[in-house]
Amino acid sequence: MNKILLAEDEEVLRMLVVDTLEDEGYSIDEACDGEEALQLITQNNYDLILLDFMMPVYTGLEVIEKVRQLPGKNEVKIMMLSAKNQQADQQRVLEAGANYFMSKPFSPIDLLSRIEEILRD
């Protein structure tokens, strides 16, 4: 079973994504801010980390930069979920170390399809 961390401060969106992924058999941990996400990342191994760009304490961008410096966490796959979908924002996210970028709003089906594709790679 693939283990995924979802770091998203919007509770309704977090619940929607968790329900969608759990229905497909994924094991999901949740964080509501960047600090909680980093704590979970240091304590657990994930197949994929889904990060919101704009979160309290640490932004998704800051979380990516910190994760990429952690021993043994450099290879974890990270996807940024963001309404900040300008080309410059996407470029910053990828340069910071994210593997993928998905613009909000997105449909749960599109997210699930993208996750399945990522985890097959």
Can you walk through the features of this model?
There is one protein chain. The two termini are 16 Å apart. The relative contact order is 0.17. It contains 5 helices and 5 strands; from the N terminus they run E-H-E-H-E-H-E-H-E-H. It has a 5-stranded parallel β-sheet, sandwiched between helices. The mean pLDDT is 94. The longest helix is centred in the N-terminal third of the chain and has 13 residues, at 11-23. With 121 residues, it is an alpha/beta fold. The radius of gyration is 13 Å and the shape is globular. 45% of the residues lie in helices and 21% in strands. The protein has a single domain (3-120), classed as 3-Layer(aba) Sandwich (Rossmann fold), CATH 3.40.50.2300. Helix 1 crosses helix 5 (108-120) and helix 2 (34-43) packs parallel to helix 3 (60-67).
Task: Please outline the helices and strands.
Elements: E1 3-7, H1 11-23, E2 27-31, H2 34-43, E3 48-52, H3 60-67, E4 77-82, H4 87-96, E5 100-103, H5 108-120
